[in-house]
Structure formats: C-alpha cells, structure tokens
Design a protein that fits this description.
336 residues, alpha/beta, Peroxisomal Thiolase, Chain A, domain 1, 23% strand
C-alpha cells in the first residue's frame, strides 16, 4: 500500500489544502492583470499568490513560494514524520523550459522547531507537468528498496516569469488578446508525504501509475491520436485492477488549450469498454491557471480533500498529466 498525504499547498486560491480545495470546488478564480505584457503590448492576465509582491521576480519568487509552503505545513503532521531522514524529491519544470534557476532555493528552510526540511538524500525531478507522477514512481521504489518509512515530494513553479511568458507567447500558447486558445499563467507550491503506512486519518491511496511519451506534441505537425496519455492511463488502470468505467471522476492539468481537452477525451474513449452515466472531469487551472510542475501535486491534494470531505462522486479517481510541449504523459489511479 502507498499512502499519500498533502501536508502543504500554497496557491492563488488558498494557503492550505483544505482552503484551496474548497475554493476549487466552488469554482472561485483569481485572475488579474499582471505587470507583464504580451507581444502586442497588452497586459497578460494570470493568477498569483497575493502574499508575494508582484514585484518579486525570478528565483526570489520561487524562494518565497517555497518558504510559504514550509510555513503552512500542518502542525499535526510535523510530529509524525522523521524530518531530516526522509528522501526528498523536488519537482521542477522541464530542463528546456525557460525560467528562473532553482539552485539553492531550499537552502536554509526548516520546519517548526528548527528541524531540517531536506535530508541527505535529495533528488530533482525535472519533467514539468508530469514531474509529480515521475516523483511518485521514484518514491515508491525508494520505499520498497530502502529502509525508509516515508518520502517527501515538493513541487514549486511559477509561470509568472518574463522568460516563461515570452517563450509561451512566441509559440502562441499563451492566452492573450489575440490568442484565445492558450493558457493562463499561474503558480503554486505543494508538499506531499508518501509513506508505507497512513500518516493521517483517511489518506489518499495510490492504486496505479502509468508513464508514457507522446510523439505528437504542441511543437510539431505529427498526427495527434493521444496515444501517449492513452497508454499511461491504460497502465495505471491495469496496475489498479480497474476498468475505465469503474473510475468515478477524473482530474487533469488541462489549462485552456483545446489540444489538451481533446487529448483527455480521446484517452478516456480509448480506454472505455463499457458506458457509465457520467464521469466528471475537474481541472484546477479554471481557478488558478497553469502552475507548471506543481499541477500534478495539486491534483493529488484536491482528490484527497474530496474524499476526506465527502463530496467526491465516488471512491476512485484518475489523474492525468501532460507535458504538451515536451511529450511526457502520465496518469494515476487513486482511491479513498
């Protein structure tokens, strides 16, 4: 058994997992005009963590997000984890995605009582939108192969960065006054504990995980059939021992591009062998925009809260991750 517990989530709509999930459930969005402008000189809209001044740029912004996430760790969980002894996995953007450097952003961070957040074994997972799923697979291996009870997975990302925005705008992937089929930039920091035994009551249980590669990306002209995400979802369902029609609801990192919506639908159709009345699709980007490599962990956090608070439409959920520009695809099946 692999238990997953979100111990901190800082995002534009909330500073705790419970408050953020409640806002997303209520479809509360916080989009505003940023200080940045697109190629035509119009203001770019985005969703930001308002506790961090908009004038805080680049690496300093990522550090501020990390600091907030550590400060918001649930006190009830602090005493139950072996701090400084757990392998630590840091999820970051794809190596080819422009943005702020992440070197040293966690230096000096400590939880209550001065205990270190990061232990001696640290790993960087630079796979962008699917980083959370890749890190989850690595965490499971660490739990099986080494004498450890838990691992920490942390994701920090902000697309509210001049380099990231310029890169997206130049490829017509940024939602602007001239491009309606694009993403809205956001930011978030999230920390999960992955353990052999439950740390808190009613944690999320990871039932299956699948990773794949899609050759048809947003940067080429190959015919698109959603083969990568379909394969990842099939693998996750197979490990969980479930069929697609047994999944109660789905979560996705879809952030506004029609290409991404089509992919999720095609992946569902390719794996559905029996009809069911409904299978809702939740996407956090409706409320907080695209938060890059943190998008995957946000899905795990929201699913956990939905099961815990009793508003999930069933006992199983499928999570989806797609790195639209670089081809990585991932899926996970979780339950209460």
């Amino acid at each position: 058994m692999t238990a997953v517990t979100c111990i901190s989530l800082v995002c534009p709509v909330g500073y705790t997992p419970a408050s953020a999930a409640a806002a997303m459930r209520a479809s509360i969005s916080v989009f505003e005009e940023l200080l940045y402008r697109d190629g035509s000189g119009q203001p770019i809209r985005g969703a930001r963590v308002d506790a961090i001044p908009l004038e805080t740029y680049g690496r300093s912004r990522l550090q501020a997000l990390a600091r907030l996430a550590v400060q918001q760790i649930d006190e009830k969980v602090v005493a139950q984890l072996p701090w400084g002894e757990m392998p630590f996995l840091l999820c970051t953007r794809d190596t080819d995605m422009p943005g702020a450097r992440i070197n040293g952003i966690l230096s000096g961070l400590a939880i209550q009582g001065g205990r270190p957040l990061v232990g001696s074994r640290t790993f960087q997972v630079a796979h962008g939108q699917i980083s959370a799923f890749v890190a989850m697979e690595q965490a499971r291996k660490l739990l099986d192969e080494r004498n450890v009870e838990a691992c920490l997975i942390m994701a920090i990302d902000s697309l509210i960065d001049a380099r990231s925005l310029s890169w997206l705008d130049s490829r017509m992937r940024l939602k602007t006054s001239e491009v309606t089929d694009g993403i809205i930039p956001g930011e978030a920091a999230c920390i999960l504990a992955v353990s052999k035994r439950p740390i808190v009551d009613r944690p999320l249980l990871l039932r299956g995980l699948g990773l794949a590669v899609e050759t048809a990306t947003a940067n080429n002209e190959e015919p698109f059939r959603a083969e990568g995400l379909s394969a990842a979802l099939k693998a996750a369902l197979g490990e969980a021992g479930l069929q697609m029609h047994e999944i109660a609801f789905r979560l996705s990192d879809v952030a506004g591009e029609s290409y991404a919506f089509e992919e999720v639908v095609l992946a569902q159709m390719r794996n559905m062998r029996q009809t069911r009345p409904e299978q809702p699709l939740w996407h956090a980007a409706d409320c907080m925009g695209d938060c890059g490599s943190a998008a995957g962990l946000v899905q795990f956090a929201w699913a956990e809260q939905a099961f815990k608070r009793g508003y999930a439409p069933g006992q199983t959920a499928a999570l989806h991750g797609s790195s639209m520009a670089f081809g990585g695809r991932a899926a996970a099946v979780v339950s209460a």
